[in-house]
Each structure stands twice: as C-alpha cells, then as structure tokens.
Write the structure tokens for this entry.
Amino acid sequence: MKNFLNELFTWVFGISSLIGLIIGIVPIAFLYFNETSPELEALKIPFISMALSVAILSLSLVITNLYYGFKVNRLVTIPVEHYKIEEKLNSFIKIITAQSKLIHNVLHHLRYIIYSFRELNYMVTKKKLKVDEIIATNTFNSLTQFLITLADNIKIYCDKVTQDDCSITIKLIKKIDNDILIKTFIRDSSSYRERKESDFIDAKHPKIYYATDNTAFNTICSPDFKDTKFISNNLKSLFDEGKYTNSNPKWNNYYNACAVIPISLVPNKEKPHERVILGFLCIDNFKGKLDDKFFIDSISGISDILFILFFELDETVLHCQKSGVKHEQISKYVNWSQSR
C-alpha cells in the first residue's frame, strides 16, 4: 500500500508539473507568433516573462520529480535487496555451522580411534603380548561407527552447500603388480541401501574395480595429471564427448556430478607427482556445485585427516594379523580378492 501511494504521488506530481509547463508555453507561443492590439502590446513583454518563468519553473519541477522519483523507487527496492542479502548471509551461516559441526565431530571421534589404535599397537610391540580379542573388537567396532558417522556428517555438509542429495563413499586403493585396484570401504548410511550392490558382494567382500575402468581414479593416479583431485559438474557431457568412463553401467542413474579427492601425501615436495595414495573421498550428486573453492578446501581437509587415520589403521591391522585377531573390518580392509 505504501509503495502504491508513493508511485501515485509521483505520477500526480509529475503530471501536474507537465500541465503547468504546457500552460506556460502555450501563451508564450500565442503572443509571440500572433499580432495583438495596441492595448495588449504593452502587456506582452511582462506576460511573456511571467509565462516563461512559469514554464521554467514547471520544467524544473518535472526534472526534479523525475530525479527524486527515481531515488524514491530506488529506496523502495532496498528492503527487497536487504532481504536477499540477509537470505544469502543466513545460507552462508548455515554452511559455516555445518562445516564447524563436521570438523568438530570428526576430530572428536578421531582422537579416540587413534588412541585405541596406539593402545593395540603398544600391547603387541611393547608388552609382547597377544592382542586382547575384546579390546580389538571394540576398537574396530568403534572404527566402523566412526567412518559411517563421518560419511553421514560429510553428506549433511555437502547437501547444504550444493542444495542437492549427495552420496559419500570412502574408497581404498592398492597396487598389485601393474594393476591399480579400487574398492569401497564405507558408504554413507542414506545411500547404502540403494547402492550397496555396486560396492559389495556381501558384508565381508567388497567389489574390486580397476582404476583404469573409471576416469576419475585413472586420472588422479596418472603421473601426468597436474591436479590432485577430479571434479566435474556434468559427467554426461564428458561421457557424450568420450572423455568419461565408469565400470558401473548404471552410474548415470545415481549421479551426474562428482568430486573425487585423494587421501594422499606428497613425501617429497620436489617431486609433487610421486604421491602416496591410500584411498579416495568421493562425493556425487545430480545438480553439481562441487567445484566451489571454499567447499573443496574443506573436503580436502577431511581427506588429510583420513590419511592419518588409514596410516594408523594399516599398522594396527598388520599387528592384529600377526596376533591372530579377526574382525569384519580387518577382512574388508585386507581382502582384495574378487571371490568370496
């Protein structure tokens, strides 16, 4: 209602000024271009001067009205622009909050897992005792819960950033002879039910894939690749151009965009392409928006944390195997055979 009254006032004021301008110009033109009686001749100059003054004043009012009318309309849009800015700010705050919770949750549980690994390793290497089966079982159960919680928290964060339903997987890598093998170790609980057949033969036997069968893994593992990650917001376009391959023929039923971040370390900074890769943190969805620098930096930080975790896990699993300790996660971790 307020905006309507402002616009109505502007129009009325503008039309009134325009009418005044016309009223001022018409007498001037009439007196100037037409002959007048001697009686009116004496009044001609004062009348023209007065009419000209009215015309100039009206013209000034028209210009002033247009100028301030524009300013008023600009002021009217400020609340709308303020709302948009506030909306963006609130969205950004939600993302920052989700990121903070993600980092806190990861580090909160990670410290316990690392401590448990060190405790198991200490029992073997220092005390020369056989690892207690119950302690080992509790440790690996906690590891499983931690990784699922981690994947679920990453999903919450990614969903907020991309405004889409994302899926998260943590994959492991192993080089056997000249082949580079890939397998899924953990998937977020939301996508697990729908996509577990792509990842696992059964609970103890993950499916094994060759890195050469997937463009993302093959690209990252290539010594010629200059980047440390693979990101695409439109895999279908790459596929149509013959630039994307995937061993899963149904991949496009589940996603059209992906970000694959290696869980890796560069031991020698002078040779940046000689990386130690333990696995991959993978994110996929349909809408994309996975190439935001702030987002990628956050996810890359999580992959760095995972490197520490899997580095410790590798040593712990080795000690447990020497002590004869068995657990489902140990089997999933060490098993690189396609058969059951």
The chain has a mean pLDDT of 79. The longest helix spans residues 38-125.
